[in-house]
Amino acid sequence: MSIKRTLAAVLMVALASVACDQQGRPIEHTGMDRLKPGMSGELDVRGVFGVPELIIEERSGSRVFQYPQGPEGPRTFFAVIGADGKLVRVWNVLVAETFAKVSPGMSRDDVRLLLGRPGTERPFVLKRQTAWEWKFVGDDHGTKVFYVMFDEAGRVASSGVEDPSLSSGR
Fold first, then answer.
1. pTM of the model
2. Which of 2, 31, 60, 167 has the fewest CB atoms within 10 Å, i.e. the most exposed one?
3. What is the mean pLDDT of residues 136-147?
4. Structural domains of the chain in order of their starting residue, each with its CATH number
């Protein structure tokens, strides 16, 4: 019996170490721990994430690569490549601090540049609004939905977070 417990403990430690980076943080994307700001280049980023869905050219010469993780994936990664071709930063934008930047009156383009492509887009004909939705992983590690409601002019009317397990709709 003690051999089984020992094997189980070793297996659990091995699985836990595979799922964390060198600082003990969960790895959100396979290979992301290989990317080093200031050292990794565009080809390294593409090797981990593939072809970006969108590349935004900044005035500074930097480029922002957007990587939504599937139509219903709970993460969207942005990678900034500096004018020197080196990685500046890579991060998941589907987090509370980014959602807090969405405000009434913003355009669809503004929201798209901030959060990346939405997972779903749903019209609410009677309200004369359209919802963009992104699934994300909440602080409780459960799947949540951040939504943005756009008015007929394509401007943010409202936004918020829903827990699909508790939701009865908007």
1. 0.78
2. 2
3. 90
4. 2-92 (3.30.1450.10), 96-162 (3.30.1450.10)
